[in-house]
Amino acid sequence: MRRKITYPLVALGMVASTLAVSSPAQAHGYVSNPPSRQALCAAGTVTDCGPIQFEPQSVEAPKGSQRCDGGVAQWSVLSDESRDWPARNVGSSVTLTWVLTARHRTADWQYFIDGNLVAEIDEGNAQPDATVSHTIDLSNFPGRQRLLAVWNIGDTPMAFYNCVDLIVGGGGAAPAPRPTTAAPTAAPTTAAPTSAPTRPGTAPTTAAPTSAAPPPAVGGDAWAAGVSYRTGDVVTFEGRRYECRQGHTAINSWEPSIYTLALWLPL
To answer: d(Cα 11, Cα 265) in Å, to the nearest integer?
Structure first.
């Protein structure tokens, strides 16, 4: 009887061991904004990326790599420079935001350009928030650059790798043109009428005040991948309304119903 009981327990232990080995690590994260290469793949901005488009948070490899793919063949598309990765225009500095699906204890965050350590943020093995932002000074690296962002885990020998393509000194998004207010060279001879004259028999029209803010959407816009959401934005997804808890750029497989704790609050 003892032998019959022992074998199933051993077999069960072997199954559990196999599951433990094959299951992915519990810490996951990626740079959402400006979009990393895996975020561009997940949003469909860059196509034919392979499995990374479904799990941009999973570029995990031993610490010490200087590659966008961490040296893992499965993610090698991220190191393919022939893809002409879209680059974001930024000023002399950039604020990068990580989205973490599992908040693993963190040793530090490191940022590299051409193997040069640009910035390092020590976390002291603390547990980070669901989203983490760092502002990095890039004034010594003008022009198009590939910034390697590394999340070094505190209690494992692993790290997560992201490459973000930037044009440093590009000034960020183009500002909206401002109306010119040049002083007139001569005084006008006639003053412009303050209101349009009304024709006989026609009721005067009343213009809506320009300062009135548009009413908020009743249900919020439908959630969509590729959209940059800010804290407080409201979306609808599968008939429910959600409020954004942390600013991020949405990607497929990161719907509000999945990541409610990290990014979305059901209303």
So the answer is: 43
